[in-house]
């Protein structure tokens, strides 16, 4: 079960703002919490240095700056990158830190002004994307765990995370809904029809419990086949050294780059919707 301790704390921070006790020219602060959808390249820090990771090699990153792979699960930028652009940040990945509480401590040490630290924490926008992997793991063929309360547990974990952040000074949150899991390429390739239907039902229940305001954004994307991967739905093996895979010709037509993560084009649309519908 995913808990706060198992989150990838993907904190897109910027040293120019973090270490400067004077207010920066761009007075905005963003914190991203989640799984691979918000992963900006931290994976290499928690695995063996010599382990081959496909996300650091082509075809990942082919639409990123300099056409280079960065560890992002996409052909290009992800949602945090676009959000940063929308508010005139220049994305700087070297400012990431491991834990949000540590960020508050560092700000306190360098700013030495509790009122200013509180102001920044309250002004910041906190993005959370989590849940899909919980449902996929619980429905995995080798587990077949039946848990009618799973959705409640996952949503409660998100609620607990938000409460903990609130207790630290956070005020403004954006929580991304779980996609219709039964239709994503990885699930269609690995799971049988019954499991696909159950995963979509779980996602629907999740989004009902955790009221989401995201509307249907992506009806002009190809959503049930990934751009990069193998077999019918290209749901696996993108960038693999052990299996053959193919890459689509026009990545802008696809929502998913690999079996579970979005393309640069898909992330841009999702980010625009989030940013333009703040409340």
UniProtKB/TrEMBL annotation:
Coiled coil: none annotated. Keywords: Signal. InterPro entries: GDSL, GLIP1-5/GLL25, SGNH_hydro_sf. Gene3D superfamilies: SGNH hydrolase (3.40.50.1110). Residues 1-24 form the signal peptide. Belongs to the 'GDSL' lipolytic enzyme family. This is Uncharacterized protein. It comes from Hevea brasiliensis (Para rubber tree).
